[in-house]
Amino acid sequence: MIKIIPQNDLKEDFEIEEQSGNTYNLNVEKNIIEGTCDGIEAVKQTIYCILNTERFEYLMYSWDYGIELKNLIGEPTSYVLIELERVIKEALVQDDRIEDVVEFTFNQTNKKTIVATFKVITIFGDITIEKEVSV
User: Fold this and answer.
1) Alpha-carbon separation of residue 123 from 34, 36, 66, 96, 98 (angstroms)
2) Could you write out the three-class secondary structure of 87-100?
3) N or C: which end of the chain has fewer CB within 10 A?
4) Tell me: the pLDDT tens digits for 88-97?
């Protein structure tokens, strides 16, 4: 038998506590983990990881994690430029620390490579990011 608890018996004397963003520091240049990082450095690391993980490819990540770039391969550049802005923004705003992604600029370095530069607005401050995408 299921016991039904009246609405007024629920206690509202709890406090929501935000967890620290402290995480291991990924040194991409040396390909090692060294120390820890927090705040804006942790967000930069998260952005790097999200933009370098294809969404839906790895079972260990939720379906909200990563970016959908695979579908852009072989598409016309005009289509890729429009979609690239959408998929980058969609991927990054999943993180609670990221408020918005704005000011996109695109530079086609050759026929198959596009460099996207954009500003990520976080709760810690703004970050300018550059992402190279092969299409």
Assistant:
1) 25, 19, 20, 9, 7
2) HHHHHHCCCCCEEE
3) N
4) 999 999 999 9
